[in-house]
Design goal:
The chain is of the alpha/beta class and 178 residues long. It has 2 domains: 33-135, no CATH class; 137-178, no CATH class. Helix content is 21%, strand content 37%. It contains 3 helices and 12 strands. Strands 1, 2, 3, 4, 5, 6, 7, 8, 9, 10, 11 and 12 form a 12-stranded parallel sheet that branches. The longest helix is centred in the C-terminal third of the chain and has 18 residues, at 137-154.
Length: 178
């Protein structure tokens, strides 16, 4: 009776033909969160671990472990700690060894005492640094293996008795004869 079509695909109209297809929009990346902060008047001792970036403006003594995140020692920051992180930036004072999987940066206002192990190291003009830099992780492992060998070379050999041992042996022989 009524000639109704039940097409699932409607025919395009003349206005639809002239429009270009809209590009597929990617969702915007979530904004990077601001780092957690240790304020200027805060003093902490111990081990600091977190799953987020940390800004240290106060005093910290101990150890910092942020393997997947960044540590920033602010202008007023004073840290006496070994640091293990992805990125480390020093604007204040840092004493201790730093191991970073990505990079270490010491700004013009920063000062650092200790050893750095990282594939990338940036020392800005005016930065103060005293220590060792190793940009090849294999170098530290080789040095650690060589250190015990050199220490053993300096120790007296176990097969060769020392003068004190020889004196004790002679004293024991003298007592046995008497």
């Amino acid at each position: 009776m009524f000639d109704k079509r039940k097409d699932t695909n409607p025919t395009p109209t003349s206005t639809d033909r002239g429009k270009p297809a809209e590009p597929v929009r990617q969702p915007a990346a979530p904004p990077k969160p601001t780092p957690s902060s240790i304020g200027q008047t805060v003093s902490i001792e111990g081990t600091l671990t977190a799953q987020e970036d940390i800004l240290i403006e106060g005093r910290f003594n101990g150890e910092v472990v942020l393997l997947e995140n960044a540590v920033v020692v602010g202008q007023t920051g004073n840290i006496r700690a070994d640091i293990k992180a992805k990125n480390v930036t020093v604007h204040g004072k840092a004493n201790g060894d730093i191991q970073a999987t990505d990079q270490v940066e010491i700004s013009a206002s920063g000062s650092m005492r200790g050893d750095i192990l990282s594939p990338r190291v940036i020392l800005h003009d005016g930065a103060k640094f005293k220590g060792r830099i190793d940009m090849e992780p294999e170098g530290i492992q080789k040095a650690a293996k060589a250190a015990p060998a050199t220490a053993k070379a300096k120790e007296p050999s176990a097969s060769k008795p020392s003068d004190a041992a020889a004196t004790n042996v002679k004293a024991a022989e003298t007592r046995a004869r008497a």
